[in-house]
Amino acid sequence: MDAESRAWVDGLTASGPDHDDAVARLHALMLRMSRTEASRRTGWHGIRGPELDDLAQQAADDATVSILRKVRSFRGESRFTTWACAFAIHEVAGKFGRHAWRRDGVRLDEGSWDDVPERLGVGPESVAESRDLLAALRSAVETQLTPHQRTVFVALVVDGIALDVLVAELGSNRNAIYKTMFDARRKLRLHLETHGYLDRSERP
Amino acid sequence: MTTESPLGRFLRTDPRDVGCDEAWDLIHVYAELVAAGVDPEQRFPGVTAHLASCGPCADDFSGLLHGLQAISGPSPEGLTDS
To answer: What are the C-alpha distances in Å from A164 to residues A44, A59, A121, A161, B49?
Structure first.
């Protein structure tokens, strides 16, 4: 572990004034990182101005608490500040998703399959030739997926709901939703290959 | 060699993909490799595969690199003596 990282760990695991000083410095770092990240996300779901700074503040507070809880598990594989800043990014992302969900809610099953080609990057010139494939995909979503996989797939792909907002709506976490979507994509691809809509040789 | 359709690409999954939690557990090491100009895929193929497929994690990773760059250099928040 490099000397600066060791100093951080020693300070944060100390007691008394050294600990308090280290925590204050950590919180200042988390606030700087959270504000930088929140600024980068300005405008996401219309979040800007004072609510943006509130979210950054909350993210810095929670990141600091998380780091204090886990600091003894830091093994020095990177600089301490790099490890710590990842907590701030993680908190900002979660705060943005939950804030958008609380403020705007989500409207499941209100999207249109007509929007799917554009959402998946199918250019207007290719929509016609993709029509059969899209129809087969829509059918496979209805017949091949579990109810939970279908809910997640439709919410993300048809309704266009941001993953972190869906996480809040379903009371889940990003990893679980991603895994559900991963399994759904794999299942759909296999089905479409089996029925000749996608080339098996296209698989990695 | 045929060009795969966007839909086909979207449905393609990479078995090396480690998922969000494991990728984020390693992201601090991965980020320093990237910042140092080292290709991280050799050491962390599962993280690379995940970032190629998960938009939110890829965006968070961009934010981490951006933020680390923004806070680099002498900083009043830096803890150099303790």
So the answer is: 12, 15, 21, 8, 20
